[in-house]
Amino acid sequence: RDTRMEWFRAAKFGMFIHWGVYAVPAGIYKGEKVGKYGEWIMSDGSIPMAEYQRFAKKFNPIKYDPEAWVKLAKEAGMKYIVITSKHHDGFALFDSKVSKWDIVDASPYGKDLIAPLAEACKKHGIKLGLYYSQAQDWNQGGSARGKDKKGKWDPAQEHDMDDYIKNIAVPQVKEILTQYQPAILWWDTPRGMNKERAEQFLPLLKLAPGIIHNNRLGGDYKGDISTPEQFIPGTGLSGDWESCMTMNNTWGYKSYDHNWKSTETLIQNLVDIASKGGNFLLNVGPTAEGLIPEPSVERLKNMGEWMKKNSES
Ligand code: JFZ
């Protein structure tokens, strides 16, 4: 009997965390509001590498309290957390030995952000998943899109993708799998991937026994779960699935996005998804100081209260 998916099927509800250097500009570049998603600001604003990298010098999340985040997730009734260990800007929230574009070498904070979260998760019985952008890496030679899907926007980005896969992405996936033993590897996005590139990642998964991975690796690999994004599928979706969704309009923190979904809507989404056999991965976008925005905290607490009330006999 394959028991690997059991915890995931029972979980129903998880916390997605989009966090990184993009929380510094928080959606604003040169005084202008840029793009749809906060974490896409470098691409949407065609920000040159050298300039974007300066934001890291202001990424100093001294208010980061991973145990408080885990407790909040638990209070909301969530059973797992998936955090961006590296998003498309390539910045690693962990101490990578193969790159200086990480929290330890490029920020004033200087400490691994994933390690203490992994520890807090373990302590409180919450599963930890890691999001890793394997194909897009706008600062280290992975694929890129840029405004109007034109590709790279800074000559400094010219770099062989196979070289990037071999020397950055594969070693970093090895690092996160061995160091944190995550329960989920959440690939994103398959842009520029092919079978040959995807196949360099697959054998690494055995480094974290029992790991579940999603369908965004590329090279036609389907993974263990499909990932409808920002919508709830109808009935009849086969296989394991997880709907991920923002609480306002952005994944990564934006200072001016106040378009919050109501607690009622969020509860309805959770019930709708759970009744159809899926999981709900609900996003928070912490600030550069390391705080989950108050409207998100409030909604998560309210969801938890609703669940508690409705599970009493
Ligand atoms: C990706 C990222 O580009 C985005 O920043 C965020 O992390 C999100 C969770 O995932 O965006 C996608 C990926 C897949 C689809 C749409 C947006 N899709 O399948 O429709």
Question: What would you say this structure looks like, in words?
Answer:
The structure is a single chain. The protein has 313 residues and is α/β, with parallel strands linked by helices. The chain contains 10 helices and 10 strands. The protein has helices at 6-11, 41-44, 49-55, 66-75, 103-106, 114-124, 161-180, 195-198, 263-275, 294-311, and strands spanning 13-17, 28-29, 32-33, 80-86, 127-132, 184-187, 212-213, 225-226, 240-245, 279-284. The strands form 2 sheets. It has an 8-stranded parallel β-sheet with strand order 7-6-5-4-1-10-9-8. α8 links the parallel β6 (184-187) and β7. The radius of gyration is 19 Å and the shape is globular. The chain starts with 5 loop residues before the first helix and ends with a helix. The relative contact order is 0.17. Bound molecules: 4-nitrophenyl 6-deoxy-alpha-L-galactopyranoside (JFZ).
Radius of gyration, in Å, reads: 19 Å
Q: Portion of residues in helices?
A: 25-40%
**How would you classify the quaternary structure?**
single chain
Query: How does the overall form come out from the CA principal axes?
Result: globular
Q: What percentage of amino acids are in beta strands?
A: 5-15%
Q: Largest sheet, order of strands side by side? A: 7-6-5-4-1-10-9-8
The separation of the N and C termini measures 34 Å
Q: Note the run of SSEs as H and E.
A: HEEEHHHEHHEHEHEEEHEH
Which ligands accompany this protein?
4-nitrophenyl 6-deoxy-alpha-L-galactopyranoside
Structural class by sheet pairing and helices: alpha/beta
Low-confidence stretches: none
**Count of discrete alpha- or pi-helical segments spanning 4 or more residues:** 10
The largest β sheet comes out as: 8 strands, parallel
Number of DSSP strands?
A: 10
Mean pLDDT score, rounded? 96
